[in-house]
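Bit of a strange request maybe. I'm writing a small parser for structure token strings and I need a real example to test against, not something I typed by hand. Could someone generate the tokens for this chain?
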Amino acid sequence: MINRFVPQRLHLQLLDLVLIQLSNWRWAWRGMVVTGIMGPTFSIIALGLFARGSDPVTLGYILTGGMVLNLMFENQDKVCSNFAFMRAVGMLHYFAALPVQRYSLVLATVLAFLLLSLPSLAITTLVGIVFLHVQLTPSPLILLVIPLAAIPLAGIGALVGTSARTPEEAGSISMILTFIMTGLGPVVFPPDRLPEILLRLGWLSPATYAASALRQTLLGPITPRLAIDLIVLLGLASVALWIVSRKMDWRNTG
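Reply from user aminoacidic:
Good idea to test on real output. This should exercise your parser:
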């Protein structure tokens, strides 16, 4: 009789792989929270000082822009670094020996880093609210928007991490993409303060849709634009994760 691995059901694969990824960071998660807070929080404070006395709309853009920046640093950058490291040291061979699918590993890694990013996201948001004196009108839909905003960015990080030749190259590319996506479109600044070319290019950036969805569900009002934002984010997440799972050849890495 030939013994062969029988893959677990998808939810069991995801649970096991998420726990594996979380256990890898059990000693370092506190440092991740601190580093995840510093960059976005300092950006909110610096932009808030610059925009002191501005209208509430501008301050709302600064707050949600800082939240998007947090999701980028804590999901896109960390997922990118994680996949680049696993690829460089041959750790993907270990996962290849398990009865799991490639897309399960990708999705589980994204979900694990999303969970790890929530404390820093909450603290960054709280600091921004207190410092900017922004009035919130949160909607329950924010619980749907946060993962849909984070997953496409993390998917891009996974794609970079599995494509770059070295972890250093992956980190550099991810950082460049972070600055580009936060600068394109009305992410941190209102559209009336940006040149037309950046507004047009912003339609190509997932950060634009993430920031729009966060503003509507956190500050209000909710408009039909939210449905477009969520559909685009869901589509981008699906495409990014599918490309990574197809591209990642974990039995021939190094």
